[in-house]
Amino acid sequence: MSTKLYDETIGRHEEIRIGPPDAAKHETWNDYRKYTVKLFKDIIVDKHIITNDNYIIYLLVEKYEYYNNSPLNTSRWPLTNIRKKTYVSGSDSDHIRKAIELIDKFKNEQ
Questions:
Q1: What are the residue boundaries of the structural domains of the chain, listed by start?
Q2: Helix, strand, coil percent content, the chain, rounded in steps of 5
Q3: CA distances from 21 to 10, 15, 27, 28 (A)
Q4: pTM of the full predicted structure?
Q5: Of 57, 80, 82, 110, which has the most beta carbons under 10 Å away?
């Protein structure tokens, strides 16, 4: 059974403008970026006749979604990128710090 150690989602709106700022006719729309980081911990029990071994596995999932509201965009669905990483060593706090660093990195991007 897996345990969720960390789960955070943040979003950012960006206003996009095409055309000179003083022009009477210019196009403006808002794009939205959403970033989710989740960290799971699972204990796998390997039961053999001779030994009972427990293995701890961490799964770090990053999900990035980009909603483009441009009038030129014909797709209704967001651009989605998912990255998964597994770890078999380290402590809970080490991996939680990694997840927090990823969220902070996204917050600080311009």
A1: 2-108
A2: 15, 55, 25
A3: 30, 13, 10, 10
A4: 0.76
A5: 57
Dist. CA 94–CA 56, nearest whole Å: 14
User: For 40-56, what is each residue's pLDDT tens digit?
Assistant: 999 988 877 677 788 89
d(Cα 9, Cα 32) in Å, to the nearest integer? 13
* φ and ψ of 76, to 5 deg: -90, -20
H/E run at residue 76: none
Token couple for 16: 């996009």
CA dihedral sign of residues 23, 25, 30, 31: negative
